[in-house]
Write a structure and sequence with these properties.
about 500 residues; alpha+beta; six-stranded mixed sheet; 15 strands; about 35% helix
Length: about 500
């Protein structure tokens, strides 16, 4: 039995019938590399074999009576792999758009909290002898870094696989109400002992931040609740739309070097350029920058505290109101540097420390009330969207013998911020996953189509010739023709 950390549990409390707090990954695999040919059972048995290495796939939640404290994880005594690993066919012709349609339907369904909080779907019938793989896991169980660790356990470095030495994991009994209440009381006592220290640390952090704000020589990131309203900054529904894009990693690095910026700055600049062009299409371009939440890992080798999520967040400005790409990326660099200064002043673990005090009943009730009443429409957006950038492996990975061709990550959306962009590098490409509320962004592929011309602006600025960008920047039009033209090749 292991208690969820406050931050892990907060992802449970924030979940509503419209806000699904799971993360997902859409992979495309070449089934021709599988020894003996494609087999759904081979995929399933690979997962079964690796289960002892992946605790989040074996554990389920147990709620504490009267919600006295955060829930606990236990090894599921009734675990059934058949419930978690399923297969489905992809509509013809089996391209990325059809795969994204199926993925959108899968991620629109919340996970069953009476079972371990994950599902994997094998999608058959893709073009070129390929299969799709959609895995969704609740954010209470993993963050970006721990999700990458799960990939290393499930995947192999060649098609022949590897020997996995594991010991069987014994299921746990479901704790009684008395055990849960007693465990909760002890946890509360330990938490109370650190209350004064946390208050003192926070007071010092706030004082440092205020001092920095008053110092004109110190730069700052974006400020929450200063975000302009856009078509995707409204209350959301339960249905999701998915789209993909990709750009070459080597060219990203060349642009980074030529402009003397970081890879993350290039990624944010590409997203900013794409969003600017998309909002121009919608005749909804604001006259102020967008505010993006950028999750950052706060893991360190000495951090032994429990919890799957070790993340904090930066608030960065995305100057979609600026026409000049050079000025846009300069603004982004200044904003991200300032956001890091703000984050350092507040303290890396402040968010995770205060999350321990999240009240289950209060948080859950507030989240449902906020969602059901559509309150996100009644005030200025806290932020416009989430953009997450996670480095991935530069070498090929195999799953059940199938070679991974592409992998598109996706994070959750929330009321008032109906768009999430998650970026993952893999081999020689940067794969970009878009997830949005279906009603707010039915034309999500039009946004994905603007990634290529937005990246071309940066390569032109940097003087980099990229032979893969054979198309010049697409004209800004209200049609979706550019979306189809700029899709990644199947």
């Amino acid at each position: 039995m292991e208690r969820l950390s406050g931050l892990d549990a907060t992802f449970l409390y924030l979940e509503t019938p419209r806000t699904h707090m799971h993360v997902a990954m859409v992979g495309i695999y070449d089934a021709s590399t599988m020894p003996g040919g494609y087999s759904f059972n081979a995929i399933k048995e690979t997962i079964r074999e690796r289960l002892p290495l992946v605790p989040p796939f074996r554990r389920r939640l147990v709620r504490v009576p009267f919600q006295l404290h955060h829930p606990v994880w236990i090894e599921d005594p009734d675990f059934n792999l058949d419930y978690h690993v399923r297969r489905i066919g992809c509509p013809a012709p089996g391209g990325r758009r059809e795969l994204a349609e199926v993925a959108g339907q899968i991620v629109s369904i919340p996970l069953d909290r009476n079972r371990p909080l994950w599902e994997a779907w094998v999608i058959e019938g893709l073009k070129h002898d390929r299969i799709g793989f959609v895995c969704k896991v609740h954010h209470a169980a993993i963050d970006g870094a721990s999700g990458a660790e799960i990939m290393t356990e499930l995947f192999d470095f060649d098609a022949s696989g590897r020997e996995v030495a594991t010991e069987p994991v014994e299921p746990e009994h479901v704790p009684s109400d008395l055990e849960l209440v007693s465990y909760a009381a002890m946890s509360k006592l330990r938490l109370a002992g650190d209350a004064f220290g946390l208050i003192g640390r926070t007071a010092r952090s706030v004082a440092t931040l205020i001092g920095n704000v008053r110092n004109p020589d110190v730069s700052h990131g974006a400020v929450p609740l200063t975000a302009p309203r856009t078509p995707f900054n409204m209350s959301i529904g339960p249905h999701r739309k998915v789209a993909f894009a990709r750009i070459p990693l080597d060219t990203v690095k060349q642009v980074k070097t030529a402009l003397d910026v970081k890879v993350n700055d290039v990624v944010l600049a590409v997203c900013t350029g794409a969003l600017r062009r998309y909002l121009e299409q919608k005749d909804a371009l604001p006259d102020t920058p967008l505010v993006a939440v950028c999750p950052v890992s706060v893991r360190d080798g000495e951090d032994e505290r429990d919890g799957a999520n070790k993340v904090s967040a930066l608030f960065a400005s995305l100057p979609v109101d600026v026409d000049d790409p050079a000025e846009r990326i300069a603004t982004i660099v200044a904003s991200t540097q300032g956001a890091k200064e703000d984050h350092h002043a507040i303290g890396a673990h402040t968010l995770t420390d205060w999350a321990e005090w999240a009240a289950p009943r209060t948080f859950g009730l507030a989240a449902r009330l906020y969602s059901s009443m559509g309150l996100a429409n009644a005030h200025r957006p806290i932020h416009n969207l989430v953009i997450s950038n996670v480095p991935g492996p530069p070498f090929p990975l195999y799953f059940g013998g199938a070679e991974m061709v592409a992998t598109y990550p996706m994070g959750p959306i929330m009321d008032g911020a109906g768009l999430n962009i998650t970026v993952l590098s893999y081999r020689d490409h940067v794969d970009i996953g878009f997830l949005a509320d279906e009603e707010l962004m039915e034309d999500l592929w039009d946004l994905a189509a603007q990634v290529t011309p937005a990246f071309a602006e940066l390569t032109d600025l940097a003087g980099v010739v990229d032979p893969t960008l054979v198309k010049r920047p697409a004209p800004v039009t209200p049609t979706s023709a550019a979306a189809k033209a700029a899709e990644p090749a199947d």
